[in-house]
Amino acid sequence: MRSARVLVVEDYEPFRRYICATLGKNPDFWIVAEVSDGLQAVREAEALQPDLILLDIGLPGLDGIEAARRIRRLSPGSKILFVTQESSLDVIEEALSSGALGYVIKAHASTDLIVAVETVCAGGRYVSNGDYRATQP
Question: In this structure, what DSSP letter does residue 137 have?
């Protein structure tokens, strides 16, 4: 895997630090920016054109799903991986339909985050909720 430029979008600062520290252990991931709201995420994605965007759903200013839709238009080469506490199937489906390739539930981040990032960076799909995977064709 080649090095990936990553934008981290998370409004809860301790969890944002956790994500950055976890990714920072791997030299293949380079955090290019950290932001805490959806509007900032859209602006930074357009300006930086990162390879990967880790995006929360519950964000101030603009929720993560709407931010993802806008980012898809402004930074079409960026891959999106949601990292959120939302675990309902409806929310997961809406998030993935916004153009995201992956979805990690925060409660599973310690085991799923790196695997999800590697999978999404390689162009694959990753969803950490096993019940959702079972519903896919």
Answer: -
What rounded mean pLDDT belongs to the chain? 92
Query: How many CB atoms are located within 10 Å of the residue 79 CB?
Result: 22
Q: What are the Cα distances from residue 60, in Å, to 29, 55, 110, 116, 122?
A: 26, 12, 25, 25, 30
95 membership: H or E segment, kind and range: helix 89-97
- pTM of the full structure: 0.93
117-136 per-position pLDDT tens digit: 999 999 999 998 655 543 33
Q: Which long-range contacts (CB under 8 A, 24 or more apart) does 122-130 make?
A: 122/1, 123/79, 125/96, 125/101, 126/81, 126/101, 126/102, 127/92, 127/96, 127/102, 127/103, 128/103, 128/104, 129/87, 129/89, 129/92, 129/103, 129/105
- For residue 99, the 8-state DSSP code is T
- 137 and 16 in contact (C-beta within 8 Å)? no
Count Cβ atoms within 10 A of the Cβ of residue 131 and give its class: 0-12 exposed, 13-18 middle, 19 or more buried.
exposed
**Which residue segments constitute the domains of the chain, with CATH numbers given?**
4-135 (3.40.50.2300)
